[in-house]
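Repro:
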Amino acid sequence: MFILILSFLTAFTLAYFAIPHIINIARDKNLCDEPSERSSHTISTPALGGIGIFSAAIFAIVLWTPFREFGNLQYILCAFIIVFLIGVKDDISPVSPINKIIGVALAASILVFKSDIMLRGFYGFFGLHAELPVPFYTGLTIFTILGIVNAFNLIDGINGLAGSIGALICGTLGCWFFYVGRIEFAVVAFTIVGAIIAFLKYNYSPARIFMGDSGSLLVGTASVILVIKFIDMNYYMEIGQKGKILASPVVAIGVMILPLYDTLRVFVTRLLRGQSPLNADRRHIHHLLIDYGFSHMQATGILVSVNVIFILLAFSLNRALEMHLLLVLILGLASSLTYWLHKAVLRKKQKKLMLR
C-alpha cells in the first residue's frame, strides 16, 4: 500500500508544479489551441497538458515500480513514449488521422508482441470458448487498443472530462490490481491517476490548459493496458479465487462505458448519414449536455457520476446475472439515457425556435 501512496504523490507533485511552467512556455511560444466552430472554448488556450502528465507519470513509474516483478515494463514505457510523441506532434502541428492510426498501431504492436498485453480469446463472450489462431487474437487486441485510445481522444471535448474519466477508470482498475496482489499494474494505474488529478486542477473551468492529444492518447493507452490485463487475468483465475470477476469482459465495458459507448454511437450515426466515421462533429454526449444548457463542469460532473453508477452496477451484478444479460442491461441503460437526452435537447431547441 505504501508504494502506491508514494507513486501517486510523486506523480501528483511533479505534475502540479510542472504544469504552470508548461502553461507559461506555451503562451510565450504561442502554442495554443484556437477556438473553432466545433470548439467548446472561446479563448486561446495552451493544449500541452499531456507533457506534464507524461513526464510526471513516467518518472514515478520508473522510480517506484518493482522491476523484478515487472520485466515487461520497458515495453509499456516504449508504447507510452510513442503515443506521447504522436500526441505532442499533433498538438503543435496537426497529424493526419491515418498517420496517427499508424503510430498508435505501432505502440499497440509493441504491447502485444513484447509485453504480454493481449486478448487470448473471447472469454465466453457471445458463447465463444473455442481457440482460434493466434494471429486472429493479435489483430483483435490491436484493434481493441486502437478503438479505446481513439475513444479517449474523442471524449476530450470539454473541460475536465477526459481527465476525470481517465482517473476514474485507472483508479478503479488500480484498486482491483492491488486487491489481487498485482502491485506492478497498481503502481502504473496510481501514477497515472496522480498525474491526472494534478492536471485537473488547471483544466477545470476556467481551464488554463487542455490535455491535448499528448495527454488523451497517453491516458487512453494506460487505460487499455489495464483493462486488457483485467479481462485476461480474470479468465484464468480459479472460481472462488480472491478478486475473481465472473463476467470480466462485460464489467470492463461497464468500467469504460462512457468512452466506448459514445465512440460507438457517434461512429454508427456518422455511417448511417453516409459520412466517414473519422469526420469530426458535435454529436458526442458531452456536446448534447452543453447544447442542453449545462456548463462544462456540470456536464463533466454528470457524465462522471453516470460512469460511476455503471461501474457499481457492473461489479455488483457480475455474479447475479449471466454475462449476456448484464451486457444487455448495460447497453440498454446507456441507450435509454442517451435517447432521453437527445430528445430533451431537441425539445429545448424547438421551444427556442417557437419563442423567436
